[in-house]
Amino acid sequence: MTESPARGEAPDVTADLLPDDALEASSVVANRAMNRERRLAGRDGYARVLGHDILGLPPGARWLDLCCGSGRALLDAADARPDLDITGVDLVGYFAAAGPVRFVAASITTWLPGARYDLVTCVHGLHYVGDKLGALLRAASWLSDHGVFVANFDVAGIQAPGGARRVLRALRSAGFEYDARTHRIRRDGPFSGTLPFRYLGADDRAGPNYTGQPAVASHYSAL
């Protein structure tokens, strides 16, 4: 049982936050359906959701998709562009097939790649990640010299001192571009720096975000 704060004291919001291992066992995360069967093309396809032409990658390019769901979009791309080197990572290993795509069942907060990538994407997956800012930095650090990272991102899912303005200011200083209308974040070229925040934990009871689906709120303190 959590004790109530004494009069005049602010409640300790970190007391009920989940660490990553507990978060990943949460029904909100483990049962997510946002990206499970998404295809490459179509109204809700990767190309439209990300605003990026994946099939326009140069010959032999490496593409890494984080929180790839069943991986159907990746298999679509492999059928259309068999020259691409494609890897998909998802916490829940219910992949549609193997074939020409390399699938890995792992958490994107701990998994380490063995290569650099020309494109790193994450379609509606960051909504369910605890350390969202850490995931952004990890993804950007895996880019090749001319690589691109693009993902769906909801800055309202970040709880940090100074609010969204401070978070976005730090991300833009690190070379990330954020489009508030489309809820997309992008970076061109690798990044190996840090952000002025310390991850505290996550709240899986945050409720729906802009997608209408239950999401995870990520809490940070300032450094």
Mean pLDDT: 90
Largest pleated sheet: 7 strands, mixed
Shape type: globular
Main β-sheet, spatial strand arrangement: 3-2-1-4-5-8-7
Would you give an account of this structure?
- By secondary structure, this protein is α/β, with parallel strands linked by helices.
- It has one domain: 3-Layer(aba) Sandwich (Rossmann fold).
- 19% of the residues lie in helices and 24% in strands.
- It is built from 6 helices and 10 strands.
- The protein has helices at residues 20-23, 27-30, 46-50, 72-80, 132-141, 163-173, and strands at 62-66, 85-90, 102-105, 117-122, 143-152, 158-159, 177-179, 184-188, 197-203, 217-222.
- Helix 4 (72-80) links the parallel strand 1 and strand 2 (85-90).
- Mean pLDDT is 90; it is low at 1-6.
